[in-house]
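pasting for the record
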Amino acid sequence: MGAPLVLERRRIVIADPEIPGSKQPYHAAAGLPLSKAEALVRNAIESSRALAFEALSATVKTLRTKGHEVVGCAVLLGSGKALPGLERVLASHALIHTAEGEMFRDVLAFAARECRLSVTAVREKGLDAGLLERIGSLGKLIGPPWTQDQKYATLAALEALESMIRA
């Protein structure tokens, strides 16, 4: 296998700006009565799932139209600690941030599965630091942004690809 190539790069919007609180639903739900908080979070998840599926399926279609086989994706995981119930999450600002990160990762994994893609979960702490240095040059080829988030996502994708090749 040769050096990795970037075939498609796009920004996927998974929070509907028309829905109040959709960018940070757990923050928006804090302080609301539990039933209203549950409804707000549930609506944000449903909306984000639909947006993620629409964007990912369009990306897959574009790549397949260009003759590429799309079979999987990677989702970069956080700490992996199980979250408590919504009431306890909303009582802790740190857990609110954690829950939002988990929600958006789950939304992306949901969309990938709906697109019939294999989903490889990769822990951020398990990323290969040596490989991180080697992919730095990709940023020069594709241009900004090329922040830590993009680099980590690229490493996760490479790990997913490698695991599919080994299988």
